[in-house]
From TrEMBL:
UniProt keyword terms in alphabetical order: Transferase
Organism (species): Ureibacillus endophyticus
GO molecular function: acyltransferase activity, transferring groups other than amino-acyl groups
Protein name, UniProt field: Protein ElaA
Organism superkingdom: Bacteria
Transmembrane segments: none
Residue stretches making up the N-acetyltransferase domain: 6-147
InterPro entries: Acyl_CoA_acyltransferase (IPR016181), GNAT_dom (IPR000182)
Length: 147
């Protein structure tokens, strides 16, 4: 699958720059949603990503318990627009969940998901634990996975 998993300190400056660029392109520009993308949580997170030709084409971050929620969480899940429809998000989530259970020994994962992705996350066993609410003008739900 050629995904890389690194802590913040293991990222090269170029990788970090490309990750932040792609997250901004997707979550701020593409979704027309101004919000503080660089939120201070990256320093404590694990970064799972796939590069092609020097570009980040798929990315997510794993946040240890206590960073966003009492539970471990996954966030900033993205696939670059030109690469969507190739099952990269599914492969990346499978790898992330495998790492979380086998290496981090965590059995509960909480996410804040865009509402339209509910079925995608349900396919991994996540269950809705909140009503739909607006976060930065976009409908979201909270979901929980217990293994």
């Amino acid at each position: 699958m050629n995904f890389q998993l690194k802590t913040f300190n293991e990222l090269t400056t170029t990788e970090l720059y490309n990750i932040l660029k792609e997250r901004t392109d997707v979550f701020v520009v593409e979704q027309n949603c101004p919000y503080p993308e660089v939120d201070g949580k990256d320093l404590q997170s694990y970064h799972l990503f796939k590069e092609e030709n020097g570009e980040i084409i798929a990315y997510l971050r794993i946040l240890p318990p206590g960073v966003s929620y009492p539970e471990l969480s996954i966030g900033r899940v993205l696939v670059k627009e030109d690469y969507r429809g190739q099952k990269l998000a599914q492969q990346m989530m499978e790898q992330a969940l495998s790492y979380i259970t086998s290496e981090l020994k965590e059995t509960t994962v909480k996410i804040q998901a865009q509402h339209y992705l509910e079925d995608f996350y349900r396919s991994f066993g996540f269950e809705v634990i909140s009503e739909v609410y607006l976060e930065d003008g976009i409908p979201h739900i909270d979901m929980l996975l217990k293994k």
